[in-house]
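Fig. S4 source data, part A: sequence.
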Amino acid sequence: MDIGLRLEQELEQAVAHAAGNDCPPLLAQALRHSVFPGGARIRPRLVLAVSTACATGNATAASQNASASLAFASAVEVLHCASLVHDDLPCFDNSVLRRGKPSVHAAFGERLAVLAGDALIVLGFEWLAMRTERVAQLSGILARCVGGPSGICAGQAWECEQTIDIVKYQRAKTGALFAACTMGGAALQGYEPFGWQKLGFAIGEAFQVADDLRDVAGSAEKLGKPVHQDEVNHAPNFVAELGFDGAMAHFEELLDAARDAIPDCPGRDALAKQIEGVSRSLVTGLSARTVAA
């Protein structure tokens, strides 16, 4: 079965569990709205790509860990969706559009958006507990990358400070969950997870630079969300810091760093090509000309 289809089926089961018969109907609708239809599912696909790279040539290991890999990948995506719900709230980015449709607070109101985001955070950890036997290690990886002092929550909290270190801010807000993907994907195949953290941070920063480039040079129609949000919200942005050409050059440096950071594993070369291909697709067609337009 196609890996994308298997991932969607796993997410369907997870959300169905949280939005079951006893769930208040509006909350159940908000939960589904938060997760489906999804975006590119880049983070869970990265989990599965790293897991596959580590198990390449070992069919037994790949088969034995397939279910756990899907569960961890789904937990990552659920937590990512939770972060988007909260990020869009009026108290943060106040965005009314996400993935080409109304954001959760725009569709269901602010109270249900807060609760839906909270419920998804809990679901991510509950799903791991229900679907895997390696709860302690995998939950620990996720918790460090979602909470404080340097997870997603810390990244969002940097926006509340008067002075923001853009590297710490972006590493926490974006890079941390990518680090969870690479660390968890490797741990699922018996690799020491912290050896894969550097790769996750490099990919995460590259994706953040790409997102900053798209915020100033992309279109809401293509991205499915408002553009120029960093300018509106006075949020740090690599393009504002480095200029368009400087940010694009930094993006290239980060792709090189990501490739060099991949630890030895059987599928190293294939993983490097996959990471580069997905990353470059994010900035295809962007140019400095579109910034002024």
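Fig. S4 source data, part B ends here. The radius of gyration is 18 Å.
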